[in-house]
Amino acid sequence: MTPFISPDLHRLFHPQSVAVVGASTKQGYTWDSGNAYINGCIRQSFAGRLYPVHPKAESILGYKCYGSILDIPEPVDLAIICIRVSAAKQAIEECAQKGVRFVHMLTAGFGETGAASASDIEAEIMAIARQAGMRIVGPNCMGLYSPEGGLAWNGELPAQPGSIGLFSQSGQLANMVVRTSAQEGIHFSKVASFGNASDLQAHEFLEYLADDPQTDVIAGYIEGLKQGRAFFEAAKKVTRTKPLVVWKGGQTEGGARATRSHTAALAGSFQTWQGMCRQAGIITVDSLTEMVHTLSALQQLPLPKGSNAAILGGAGGGSVTMTDMAEKHGIGVPQLSDDTIERLSAVVPVQGSSVKNPLDILPFITSGESFKFVMELLKQDPQVDCLFFSFPFAFIYYEAGRPGVNAYLKMITKAREWLEKPMFVVIESFSALELMVVGREVTEELMARQITVFPDFEVAARVMMNLKGYNDYLSRS
Q: What are the angstrom distances between the C-alpha of 469 and each of 218, 291, 298, 473?
């Protein structure tokens, strides 16, 4: 057998030619058709050569069709296989004969079914690929999204590239992470949905993204690892220079059982997983919202040096509940230093206010001058490692209108320079239509100014501790 040599994955994400085996003459771009990938390439302005493969059609979506990948007159870097499982083996044989470098197999119905015959076909396909020195993404996966490389699994993904790399065993969750992140102003350099991982593994994508100059932060969704030691060895190397955020599926007995029918992954002990992540410096998250906002914060906030926070923006019971929530997540809410309290007490009216922590002083900070005064006090206070600011835009909107809200936006933007510590801005949603609209406008304006906005205090608290844990890891490394 010819020895297997792993080619550089750069060409996988930047192919010069793509063949879509399973392009359809039917109208529409359903997720399981080759046409979705052709449309995705069009949307991403793919600059290479695109070859639809169909046994009878002359053209699809304006591109000349070929009856077989063997009929294509030029070399093929990437073949996307979108045909039924019974025809997949022949397609792989033809790819091997053609000398294709990479294959992405959307086709499902292999080892994840649990059927011995399906697993045997998957093993035969992998043997053909290995013999040919051809790498396979999948099977049973959405494949690749690379804005700079001109690839996407549909025409709905953003064409704007970013600096986050993502590898995911779930195509659905990869799609959700990309699209939800885009709503928060966060974009991706490269994404790989790799399904059953019968060939290319999580650690190989991780190693590639670790060296990728277009990627500053790495994210992953994993259900199970076939080569766990290789993954954690790679993680220990990358986390010293790039943050790695991972969402683990299959944390419970039921979830672990579901992973086996989804991607044929063995989930393993969640306790063991958590311990390994701590050792490797991996930031772990448990939801889509936590994932997206952790990625945003890593790009836009400095890492907190400690776990003590000042809380600003609440009043009365709101201050109490935010303090409870913070301390439940391991965040301290200490009384501010004597000097800070003394200087605030000298200018903040006593009635209806509190200058100790949490800070109930909103009526005082109505100008840039007063806001700067408070931020500089918190910057100098050794008791404060970060600030949680619950932005009361609804109160300000009703009291001072949109001009008042705009003035506050300018103060929040300047606060980053004044504070020089992580500031977690929380803007909670309202059911009233008018406030929903204003809240979304305010959030988008802050995001446009590279300020991370959190939908509620609990998400902000979890993200703060994620960043604090990563800073602790870097300090120990």
A: 16, 15, 12, 6
Residue type, 338: D
Residue 432 backbone dihedrals phi, psi, to 5 degrees: -65, 130
Q: Which residues contact 444 (CB under 8 A, 6 or more apart)?
A: 185
**Which DSSP string corresponds to 267-296?**
---HHHHHHHHHHHTPEEE-SHHHHHHHHH
Sheet holding 78-81, edge to edge: 49-53, 17-21, 78-81, 102-105, 135-137
pLDDT digits (tens, 9 = 90+) for 33-47: 899 999 999 999 999
Task: List domains and CATH numbers for the chain.
Answer: 10-137 (3.40.50.720), 160-300 (3.40.50.261), 309-476 (3.40.50.261)
Look at phi and psi of residue 450 and say left if phi exceeds 0, alpha if psi is from -120 to 50, else beta.
left
Amino acid letter, 244: L
β-pair partners for 429: none
DSSP codes joined into one string, 51-119: EEE-SS-SEETTEE-BSSGGG-SS--SEEEE-S-HHHHHHHHHHHHHHT-SEEEE----SGGG--HHHH
Helix (H, G, I), strand (E, B) or coil at 318: helix
Under 8 Å CB-to-CB from 200, ≥6 apart: which residues? 9, 135, 136, 137, 192, 194
pLDDT digits (tens, 9 = 90+) for 308-344: 999 998 665 578 889 999 999 999 999 999 999 999 9
CA distance linking residue 413 with residue 300, whole number of Å: 12
Contacts of 268 (CB under 8 A, 6+ apart): 224, 225, 228, 250, 256
| 3 state SS of 36 | helix
- CA–CA separation, 389 vs 367, rounded Å? 16
| Calpha distance 218→212 (Å, rounded) | 10
Radius of gyration of the chain (CA): 26
Element (H, E) at 434: helix 433-448
Tell me the pLDDT band of 471, cut-offs 50, 70 and 90.
Answer: very high
d(CA 223, CA 219): 14
Neighbours of 201 (CB within 10 A): 18
Please tell me whether residue 252 adopts helix, strand or coil conformation: coil
Taking the model in full, what pTM does it have? Answer: 0.91
